[in-house]
Amino acid sequence: MLITDILLYTTIFASVYVQVLFLLSFFEKKELLQKYNLNNIINENELPPVTFLVPCWNEEKTISKTINSIKNLTYPANKIFIHMIDDGSKDNTWKELSKFSNDPQISIFKKENGGKFSALNYSLPEVKTEFVASFDADTTINEDALLKIISYFTKDKDISAVGGSILIKSPKTMAQKAQSVEYQMFSFSKKVLALLGGPLVVPGAFSVFKIDTLRKVGGWKDGHGLEDLELTYRMQVNGYKVEHSHDSIAFTTGPKTIRNLFTQRLRWGYGFLKNTKDYKSAIFNKKFGNFGIFTLPMSLMSYFIIVIVFGISWYNIFLFLYDKFLVLKLLGVRALFGHISFNLFYFNTKAIVFLSILTIIFFAITIIFGRKISNVREKNFGHIFYFFILYSLIVPFWVIKNIWNALISNRPAWR
Amino acid sequence: MLLFLIGLRGVNFMFWKRYLISFAITIIFFIGAFYLSNQLAQKKIDQVRVIQDKISTDILSTETRFILLGSSSCKHVQSSEEFEASLTEELSEMARRVKFMESQLGYDDERVLLIKNQYSLFQIKDYLLHRQIAERCGEEITTILSFHNLTCSDCKEQSIVLDEIHNKYPAVRIYWLDTDSNTPAVKTLVSMFDVKSTPTIVIGEKKYEGFQSIEVLSEIFDNIEKLKQKAIDLKAKQKSSKPTSTNIVPTVSPTSKNITTPVVSDTATTVESKTTTNAPEVKN
């Protein structure tokens, strides 16, 4: 066996293993999905008040939409407070925010630019409610999302934070269509990790925290540009329970262009690798349960799996194209199109082929379950095509760039 | 794997149960994939064997014809064009399949090696028989011996060109010989033609060292085809006028022929020289 074969089979083994573990855990704990549903909700009077923290940085266009979306929540209006924090915007964000200065539900804050984490921390001392929600200024939310997320806290007093499920809002560009599928997959994997008791991240776009816990662990930190991931790590390492509400749906726009998507992922990858390095003592540490034993090592490993799988796929594509090039060079254009015969004998029947098909089936199942638990109804299956094409082309690039950036501590720009 | 090892060390079995079960399921998937792959490979090998049996029978037929030559004259033991064409096709199909199985199972797989070995021997036997029949009766099949091996740099290019030659001139019989092969017969052929480097191809009995482009080979075969056509036409004309002189190359007498020791040192009688000398000869 060649060295590439050994490498390929090892990585395929690892990824099949992870996928099997995901599905197994999902089916094993499936009944828990029902545990926190709306039928269990307590009566309206017992609902706790919640403060939304919305950091804004050059968001003049989306602010009113975001505020409306929060106000439209199926939740008593007197129990919702909104903190809009202008993090030193250069556009008319402050002017737009000022329009809401008389709204009793809304408090507006203005500060020097200091990053998202500093904006979140800025109004934290002003929060008077038991629960606080972090919310992105370019995000909208389903009406029942807060009710569902709060039901986790009322059912289980040990829970300190619950992340919402994030989907892409009416995707238009190719990059957004591809992301919409990716987010559906995230929805599934986030749920499974939460069922195992070790989510990777509660998304900054929409998550709810107990203010007590937040104050105890010291609020948000820069976290190498990924304040939500860092906070999720820190809470779990300190023994706080973190959950994921799969049907509390918030919609984010997602980068429109491939270039912007790439930049976003450079930021995510850098933040992920650097934060994981900061918390490396938790990796394979049974003290932190499945978060230490599975979530961290698996997430880290998937990075290298991606590089190897795509690396080898590309190598094979290169070999195939090189063969075609040779035919072109030696025999001319006409020979490229002649003599195509379909004989079953010449089908590749190496074990790797069957294992790859298995992996693709697992991917499909992940997408199907992700859609199901997040109640995605649009039948835009064409997006899956975009997802596979686009991601297989650019993921290895950003993963390699991420590893490189993390190694030389070159922090990528925010946008 | 690491998870598994840590798993074994763990005290709390319930905690590790999920990891162990997943590991077991993954192993089952892997065993299944390898089993399926192996079964299909075996099926393909069996298919190749069927073709091999056909080739074997065809070569036996050629051999029998050659033996018959000892007691009968050339015109009584003529081969049919269809027979030779189908054998050429079978040999080329075989070559393609052996090449494919090499890529599927690896060059050092025992089953592949065995098939390749037998295939090499069939080729050599067929080649030698035809050379002798040609010498005796002038009944000519244009042949290419392609000497190649895994490590040679231009062999891939050469094989692409030769595949195209096969498509262009279906009657040309190509024999693929791996110079790294341990088969003694292949080694004999390598030393017979004094092959020092790869790729080397031998057309008829003329040796060409190094890569030969499609243009060069096409020219050679166009000439041969043309000459052959000319020779056949003239032969037909001659037959009608002088029916007795059908032997074009009256070389060795039938009784002195020995099947197992082919005459190879005499490279003067190449296909080209034969055909070129034949053409003026019949003009007289």
From TrEMBL, chain A:
Keywords: Glycosyltransferase, Membrane, Transferase, Transmembrane, Transmembrane helix. Belongs to the glycosyltransferase 2 family. Gene3D superfamilies: Spore Coat Polysaccharide Biosynthesis Protein SpsA, Chain A (3.90.550.10). PANTHER family: POLY-BETA-1,6-N-ACETYL-D-GLUCOSAMINE SYNTHASE. One of its GO terms (molecular function) is glycosyltransferase activity. It comes from the Bacteria. It holds the Pfam family Glyco_tranf_2_3. This is Glycosyltransferase involved in cell wall biogenesis. The chain crosses the membrane at residues 6-27, 326-345, 351-369, 381-400.
TrEMBL record, chain B:
Keywords: Membrane, Transmembrane, Transmembrane helix. Residues 241-284 are annotated as: Disordered. The chain crosses the membrane at residues 20-37. It comes from the Bacteria. The keyword Hydrolase does not apply. The keyword Transmembrane helix applies. CDD domains: TRX_family. This is Thioredoxin domain-containing protein.
